């Protein structure tokens, strides 16, 4: 079975006919038996067949909105539409659409969005090239964040296994709480150990004793950012300071979790931790909301303190195999982040 899976994954990421898009990360997760339940990006499609909306912008001149899609199915964002719509005024990103078909769209946590005390991120803070075309990142500063209650639309809850990844940047970070992407509280309150299961990418050294200054890929499991399986510093941790960084987290919900990181431009993933859950986190008690750019107890009455950059990411149902994560990383490295 393992040999068959590796063969299938290799076939999916191999170039096909010139007219066909290569498999995307969520095609690869599905092939591995761990389908995406939420898939977000402002820069490209995460399925080979996806030809829909990526995100929405709102311009300040008249408060009208425009959805930004892809240039072609499976391709990069159509940044020219944003450039034309926002010419002569400023724009913010109000929604990041879910490509999985489950409706897990992320709205900004503030008035006019999904409620809360934050604001939408500026739409033109950072442009980049993906697959040879221009795109814009979701460039999050303090008081920007996004959220969705997905507990009824496929996001794993309780002790159900789950995996996730995001592409972020090591050049726009801080130690504020908390630049996260992943599973969070539906209550938007700190509801205890195991209520969250999210990737954190920051310079925050929650429990002290860290080596170096980061930024690091850690697990926000609520009541702490874990570099490994305990509150002690994990000596296998390393900083990822490159412009484009892949971060992954998977958690079987009862006994095991793993953290990995790598360059989103080349090479493979480095396993930073793979072992037992921290004491008091077995079983997990996930609530099934999705957070992007803040911690779980933000931003209903308080504001986000973190900064970070989001290019793409997904949450999946089940515990992804190493072969699947390696295939996803190969696809990201081939996407042409520049």
Question: What features would you describe in this structure?
Answer:
It is a single chain. By secondary structure, the protein is mainly β. The chain has one domain (2-334): Jelly Rolls. The protein contains four helices and 21 strands. α1 packs parallel to α4 and α2 (25-31) runs antiparallel to α4. The two termini are 36 Å apart. Mean pLDDT is 94; it is low at 1-9 and 11-20.
Fold blueprint:
Blueprint: H1 2-13, H2 25-31, E1 36-41, E2 53-59, E3 65-69, H3 79-85, E4 91-96, E5 106-108, E6 121-122, E7 127-130, E8 133-136, E9 138-140, E10 146-149, E11 162-168, E12 180-184, E13 197-202, E14 216-220, E15 225-226, E16 245-251, E17 256-263, E18 270-276, E19 289-292, E20 308-310, E21 312-317, H4 322-334
Antiparallel strand pairs: 1-21, 2-3, 2-4, 4-5, 4-6, 5-10, 7-8, 9-20, 10-19, 11-16, 11-21, 12-13, 12-19, 13-14, 14-15, 16-17, 17-18
Architecture per CATH nomenclature, i.e. the level-2 architecture? Sandwich
Question: Tell me about the biggest sheet?
Answer: 11 strands, antiparallel
Give the CATH class. Mainly Beta
Low-confidence stretches: 1-9, 11-20
Pairing-aware structural class of the strands and helices? mainly beta
**C-alpha termini separation:** 36 Å
Order of helices and strands: HHEEEHEEEEEEEEEEEEEEEEEEH
Number of distinct helices: 4
């Amino acid at each position: 079975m393992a040999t068959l899976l590796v063969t299938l994954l290799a076939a999916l990421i191999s170039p096909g006919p010139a007219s066909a898009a290569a498999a995307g990360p969520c095609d690869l997760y599905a092939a591995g038996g761990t389908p995406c339940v939420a898939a977000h990006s402002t820069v490209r499609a995460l399925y080979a067949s996806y030809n829909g909306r990526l995100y929405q912008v709102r311009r300040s001149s008249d408060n009208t909105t425009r959805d930004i899609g892809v240039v072609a199915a499976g391709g990069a964002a159509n940044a020219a539409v944003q450039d034309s719509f926002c010419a002569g005024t400023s724009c913010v990103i109000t929604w990041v659409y879910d490509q999985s078909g489950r409706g897990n769209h992320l709205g900004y946590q503030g008035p006019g969005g999904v409620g809360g005390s934050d604001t939408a991120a500026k739409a033109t803070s950072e442009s980049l090239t993906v697959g040879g075309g221009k795109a814009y990142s979701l460039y999050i500063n303090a008081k920007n964040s996004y959220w969705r209650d997905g507990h009824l639309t496929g996001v794993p809850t309780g002790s159900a296994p789950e995996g996730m990844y995001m592409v972020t940047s090591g050049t726009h970070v801080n130690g504020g709480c908390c630049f996260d992407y992943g599973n969070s509280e539906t209550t938007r309150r700190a509801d205890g150990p195991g209520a969250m299961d999210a990737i954190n990418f920051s310079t925050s050294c929650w429990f002290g004793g860290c080596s170096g200054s980061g930024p690091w890929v850690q697990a926000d499991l609520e009541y702490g950012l874990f570099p490994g399986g305990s509150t002690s510093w994990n000596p296998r941790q390393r900083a990822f300071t490159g412009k484009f960084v892949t971060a992954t987290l998977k958690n079987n919900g009862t006994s095991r979790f793993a953290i990995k990181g790598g360059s989103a431009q080349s090479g493979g993933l480095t396993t930073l931790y793979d072992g037992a859950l921290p004491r008091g986190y077995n079983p997990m008690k996930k609530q099934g909301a999705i957070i992007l750019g803040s911690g779980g107890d933000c931003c209903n009455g308080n504001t986000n303190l973190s900064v970070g950059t989001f290019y793409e990411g997904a949450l999946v149902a089940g515990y992804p195999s190493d072969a699947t994560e390696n295939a996803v990383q190969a696809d990201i490295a081939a996407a042409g982040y520049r």
